[in-house]
Amino acid sequence: MSNINKEINRRRTFGIVSHPDAGKTTLTEKLLLFGGAIQVAGAVKSNKIKRHATSDFMEIERQRGISVATSVMGFKYQGLKINILDTPGHKDFAEDTFRTLTAVDSVIVVIDVAKGVEEQTERLVEVCRMRKTPIIVFVNKLDREGKDGFDLMDEVEEKLQLNVRPLSWPIGMGQRFQGVYNLYERKLVLFRPHGKQQEEEVIEFTDLKDPALDKHIGESAAEELREEVRIVEEVYPPFERQDYLDGELSPVFFGSAVNNFGVKEMLDCFVEIAPTPLPRPTEERTVRPEEEQFAGFVFKIHANMDPKHRDRIAFLRVCSGKFQRNTNYLHVRQGRKMKFSNPTSFMASKKTVIEEAYPGDVIGLYDSGNFKIGDSVTEGEELHFKGIPSFSPEQFRYVNNADPLKSKQLNKGLEQLMDEGVAQLFTREIDGRKIIGTVGALQFDVIQYRLENEYGASCSYEPVNLYKACWVSSDDQTALKEFLQRRKRDIAKDTHGNLVFLAESAWALNMAQENHPKVKFHFTSEY
Ligand code: G4P
User: Fold this and answer.
1) Fold for the domain defined by 395-522
2) Dist. CA 263 → ligand 1 center (Å)
3) Torsion of CA 387, 131, 280, 109, to 10 degrees
4) In terms of pLDDT, which residue wins out, 507 or 40?
């Protein structure tokens, strides 16, 4: 096997998604511990954007510096190089989180057994579904009382619209939690709270009818497990890896991250089934990882908080070939050659300059304002990667210039912040008013603060009554023209000049869709 194929085959790049508090940080930390990437528990946790800080954007600004270190966490396990891309999940999460999902090859969804499927998980999984990303589900906190396993599976199927296949099944929960039966490897894994899982607590158990089961977990729990596993085998389809890879079937594991329980089972299965770096579509053609020539795209930009150093880090996902330091590459949008002397990798909070990187890797490129989200870097071919869209924002405000002498600064600041993907800017056609749209309300404060501190501009906001912005198109130009004419007051353009419909309410959106069946309404900027 050629060297590049070897490197590709040993890489797995994924993201963990969950609603805040479900246990994403804890799980990440346990995974890193397995890989020996960190020695002490708590290392990731201390980097986490603290919950109480969600309404305090200054605190988030401060933490932004720290969170850059956890943007990508790499570790080695069973000879594989595994990259976890952080999908920040605080209350006011931004589009960044969505966009990170465009750079992963699979995801693990963490669900709190007591709370079930929560809102942010729904929204993030929706993006994964759209992209047919393979998903593994980890039901966490089994050491606490929670929902019945089957009810929870129904909820996942219904709310996340996933077909599930449990690969482990819990034995009781809360006070009565005794462990899980691993259906994938046919092993009984017994739970000892607050201790690291020991080797001897994993027992081969191919036949649950074996009376020895009663000895291990007690008669009634054994009966219950036999019955439940029978139902699982009957109700859910058999696990086929291909279905998982196609995004059609999600294996489910149960455990308790904080107790490091059930995590290894999932990880061992993950390394066996998770996809290696996948091909990526571009407008021109599909880019395959094993191609000789390097190509990659920027999916996230992280600005320096220090106003004196307006440099940024652009995160680039390598999609094909081998990336090398100090080599001339083409910045496709700008049509010019660039060299990177300090490309950085982030291995669990350790930053190091790297010499080379392979498909599946994410590298940080120091940037003085050249990059936009979605930009391609190649060895010379003019490729434009697809599937890095903007998402329909849901919070809106008019933005006004509060200092007439600084309008240039304001425009530049807004432009750069939008390039970074902090929010989206729409200009209404009828009166030229500027409207900022975001996914989380906190971004408004962040923008105002950064405009002032980094660009010396000041802005003020005004409320605007909007429900959603969506992109519109039509194969029928007459129908589109008529729509634009009729809804003149609700039409704007995004920063790329695309047409956007600003809906005042869910009802208004429905009406527009009903009255203009030939017009298509899109909830991401790519259609
Ligand atoms: P997040 O990144 O998804 O927001 O969640 P995080 O890992 O920070 O976990 C949120 C809380 O849930 C933490 O408690 C964590 O210890 C707890 N937790 C995680 N896994 C489990 C589990 O398997 N069982 C139980 N019972 N709790 C779990 P905290 O009190 O908010 O923080 P801490 O003081 O414990 O660190």
Assistant:
1) Alpha-Beta Plaits (3.30.70)
2) 14
3) 110
4) 507
Distance, in Å, from the CA atom of 527 to the CA atom of 280, rounded to the nearest integer, reads 16
Q: Whose CA is nearest to atom 29 of ligand 1?
A: 21
**Does the beta carbon of 20 lie inside 6 Å of ligand 1?**
yes
* Residue-range domain boundaries for the chain: 3-73+90-178+237-273, 280-378, 395-522
| Residues 6 or more apart whose Cβ sits within 8 Å of residue 496 | 525
Does 175 or 422 have the greater pLDDT score? 175
Between the CA of 56 and the centroid of ligand 1 the distance, in Å, is: 21
Domains 280-378 and 395-522 share a fold: no
| Rounded alpha-carbon distances, angstroms, from residue 73 to 84, 232, 337, 360 | 5, 35, 29, 12
Work out which ligand 1 atom sits closest to the CA atom of 22.
3
- Ligand 1 within 6 A of 118 CB? no
Q: Whose CA is nearest to atom 4 of ligand 1?
A: 21
Contacts of 376 (CB under 8 A, 6+ apart): 282, 295, 296, 297, 332, 333, 383, 384, 385
Q: Is ligand 1 within 6 A of the CB of residue 28?
A: no
Contact 358, 338 (CB under 8 A): no
Per-residue model confidence (pLDDT) at position 200: 46
Per CATH, the number for 3-73+90-178+237-273 is 3.40.50.300
Average pLDDT for 456-478: 95
Nearest CA to ligand 1 atom 25: 141
435 lines ligand 1 (CB under 6 A): no
What is the Cα–Cα distance from 4 to 292, expressed in whole angstroms? 8
pLDDT at 90 over 70: no
Looking up tokens 């449990």, which residue turns up? 166
Which tens digit of pLDDT belongs to each residue from 332-353? 999 999 999 999 886 555 668 8
pLDDT (average), residues 276-288? 96
Instruction: In whole angstroms, give the CA distance from residue 3 to residue 152.
Output: 44
pLDDT for residue 20 is more than 90? no
pLDDT digits (tens, 9 = 90+) for 70-83: 678 888 899 999 99
Tokens of 345: 């990798």
Q: Where do the DSSP E strands lie in 126-269? A: 135-140, 164-166, 168-171, 179-182, 187-190, 202-204, 250-254
Q: Which residue has the tokens 């990437």?
A: 37
Task: Give domain 280-378's CATH superfamily.
Answer: P-loop containing nucleotide triphosphate hydrolases (3.40.50.300)
